[in-house]
Write a structure and sequence with these properties.
The complex is a heterodimer of chains A (327) and B (342). Chain A has 327 residues and is an all-alpha fold. Chain A is 76% helix and 1% strand. The longest helix of chain A is centred in the C-terminal third of the chain and has 35 residues. Chain A is globular, with a radius of gyration of 20 Å. Chain B has 342 residues and is mainly α. The chains are: A mainly alpha (327), B mainly alpha (342).
Chain lengths: 327, 342
């Protein structure tokens, strides 16, 4: 019985893991083992880190039933800031990264404060801040690629622990911490309660405003981590950084089983889903397909996942109502 | 009604304030740099862009009227332009039938969005966002597959040049010709403004849409078929988005995948600045045009001053956030005043 329940609750994560394994094996088989060489495996794992972290940055905002359109712009500004501070102002690496991280957190806090003060949907607020931040990103890096920062940063990005790239380990560690935050701390539970039902949360003494503010701030911090990963794994920072983050940030959590209506998180699901999306990307490169095929596939998968999860929710609700009548 | 009250009423009308602001800014930019008053290089393109963006604003307004958002306006426009472009390129249709195909495709997309929203009861912005993702890949894929490296349909139907390049100056009645600054593109925009304005101000359907937006339960209880009204609002939104997409393709002279990619922010700026509520139940059709023109004057004015793209983005984002907060502040004041009265 317990075993059955476990499968029922973890259905999305389990099926995603199976899809990931099968897809990976298929890719290895069709490529004749090229994917298993050290170099391509390293590449696969390294570029998995950013989708995981931005997926989680979107997930914490989805948890309160809102969305953060500015994920890409915030990451772009933060990474550009770090690069400029190191290249032009010759700040030490740790200080530049810290300032970039803190400013991403501050941008998230600003989003949260604006949402709470104006009582408007987070979507429209982040649309506004996204536009502003894109402007700042252009202003910081213009049309150049900033890459004249100390050599030790890319070295840091290339480090690996037990064969895993260090930055992927950072991403995993972040996801474990986030998972603990939502399952073990008061603040995490409060955020989920606000997302699940605002009125019920307020009646049980939770400050919805504080939850919303905290979720947006947390999203900013996660974007800051994504920016650190980006700057240490890429050869240079230009104005296109963050431009393709939006779809990826929504795809991972939604495919991973996070409801867009709020109230749920699925850290493991998000991580695995990011892996699956990464596989699609690899497959595209391997069969030299057009890049647009990836957006098309991911878009359709996202759309059908949303429809499916809603259908499932309604079915379970109906079953519940049936039980109520008969009981 | 006394005159002072009348004047007060006029001044407090958001549209009057907006118009004054637009005209004032226009004159200010013109005085700072006389190149801004150039008919051919500034005012004509400004009005032409304004025509396209007003229509996309109206597309968003239809969704806003029932309290929904349509995040797929840009991509619906792109798909519609794709359909029209294909019709011109492969089936050699003339201007109007090709346009109609685009409009049909756009309204069917809107219809599908509406049906999904009603059937699944999922939030409108989620459905349209997911739709946006799916269509984004679809549009690029189709262009690349069918046209290869150019990634554009470049067949120009007969009459396209007329719509994109000429003004009302062509028409003369008894020796009196239309103004040269009036682009032909404004004609479809004005038709759309009049029709949408008529819909919301004078028809039963329009009023039912608005009451669906202001209070869904009350609307349902008073016998309005709210599900059907939601579908109609989204279909209208798709139709207008399609019109804007084809208009932009005409302005550009080619049908490309990038059409509509810049529509999202303007589609909100116009209606929101014009006084349309995000929560639904109240629309300002003419305000959408004025709001759009205000943003365009700011954009064009700053770029004539030689200010780069980055500052434009910052300015427009700030305008949006300020406009949104103003609504909230206004609401707060009204609440205080109401409390004082009782």
């Amino acid at each position: 019985m317990n075993f059955k329940l476990f499968f029922k609750h973890r259905a999305t994560e389990l099926s995603l893991s199976i899809i990931f394994v099968v897809g990976f094996v298929l890719l290895v088989a069709t490529s004749g083992g090229v994917l298993l060489t050290r170099q391509s495996l390293q590449g696969f794992l390294t570029y998995l880190a950013v989708p995981i972290v931005i997926g989680m940055a979107q997930m914490v905002v989805l948890a309160i039933g809102q969305m953060n359109l500015a994920v890409g712009a915030m990451g772009g500004v933060s990474a550009a800031m770090m690069a400029v501070l190191m290249a032009d102002h010759h700040l030490p690496i740790w200080l530049a990264l810290l300032i970039g991280f803190l400013s991403a957190t501050a941008m998230g806090a600003l989003n949260g404060a604006l949402v709470v003060i104006t009582q408007l949907n987070g979507f429209i607020i982040t649309l506004g801040t996204m536009t502003i931040l894109l402007g700042f990103q252009y202003r910081l890096v213009r049309t150049f690629t900033v890459d004249s920062y100390p050599k030790s940063l890319p070295d840091f990005g290339n480090k690996s622990i037990l064969g895993f790239p260090l930055i992927l380990v950072i991403a995993f560690a972040t996801s474990v911490l986030l998972s603990l935050f939502f399952s073990r701390t008061m603040a995490g539970r409060r955020i989920l309660a606000t997302g699940g039902n605002q009125i019920a949360a307020r009646l049980s003494g939770i400050s919805n405003g504080r939850s919303v503010f905290l979720a947006h701030t947390l999203s900013g911090s996660l974007v800051g981590i994504a920016a650190i990963i980006t700057i240490s794994s890429l050869p240079g920072i230009n104005r296109s950084i963050g431009g393709d983050w939006m779809l990826a940030s929504f795809a991972a959590p939604i495919i991973g089983g996070v409801l867009m209506a709020g109230g749920t998180v699925a850290v493991f699901g998000t991580v695995v889903a990011a892996g699956v999306v990464r596989l699609v990307d690899i497959a595209r490169a391997q069969y030299s397909l057009d890049p647009s095929i990836v957006s098309l596939t991911v878009g359709i998968v996202v759309l059908s996942t949303v429809a499916l999860s809603e259908w499932r929710r309604r079915r379970s609700q109906r079953a519940l109502e049936g039980k109520k009548v008969s009981g | 009604m006394s005159t002072t009250l009348k004047i007060r009423r006029i001044i407090s009308d958001q549209r009057v304030v907006l118009t004054a602001l637009t005209v004032g800014l226009f004159i200010y930019f013109g005085l700072k740099n006389s190149a801004f008053f150039s008919t051919d290089f500034v005012i004509y393109p400004l009005l032409r862009d304004g025509a396209v963006l007003t229509v996309i604003g109206l597309a968003q307004l239809c969704a806003l009227s029932i309290g929904h958002l349509n995040l797929a306006v840009g991509r619906m426009a792109a798909v519609a332009a794709l359909a029209s472009g294909a019709a011109y390129q492969y089936w050699h249709l003339s201007l109007v039938p090709g346009l109609l195909i685009g409009l049909i495709v756009g309204s069917s997309l809107g219809f599908v969005a509406g049906v999904i929203i009603v059937k699944s009861q999922v939030n409108a912005f989620i459905v349209t966002l997911a739709m946006d993702f799916a269509l984004l890949g679809f549009v690029t894929f189709v262009y690349v597959t069918f046209t290869g490296a150019t990634a554009a349909f470049i067949t120009k139907p007969k009459g396209m040049e007329f719509w994109r390049n000429t003004s009302l100056h062509q028409y003369c009645v008894g020796g009196f010709c239309g103004p040269k600054v009036f682009p032909m593109m404004l004609v479809p925009a004005i038709i759309a403004l009049v029709l949408v304005g008529f819909l919301y101000a004078k028809t039963r359907l329009g009023r039912e849409l608005l009451s669906t937006g202001s209070n869904l339960r009350a609307a349902k209880l008073s016998g309005i078929p709210v599900d059907r009204r939601v579908i109609i609002a989204h279909t209208l939104s798709g139709l207008l988005a399609a019109l804007a997409g084809v208009m932009l393709a005409f302005t550009n002279g080619s049908f490309t995948a990038s059409i509509g990619s810049q529509f999202m922010l303007p589609s909100f700026l116009g209606p929101v600045l014009g006084g349309t509520l995000l929560v639904g139940g109240s629309v300002q059709v003419l305000g959408t045009f004025i709001g759009t023109m205000l943003t365009l004057v700011i954009r064009q004015g700053l770029s004539v001053q030689g200010i780069g793209l980055e500052t434009l983005n910052i300015a427009l984002g700030l305008v949006l956030l300020t406009a949104l907060s103003l609504g909230q502040i206004q609401k707060m004041f009204t609440a205080i005043r109401m409390r004082g009265r009782t």
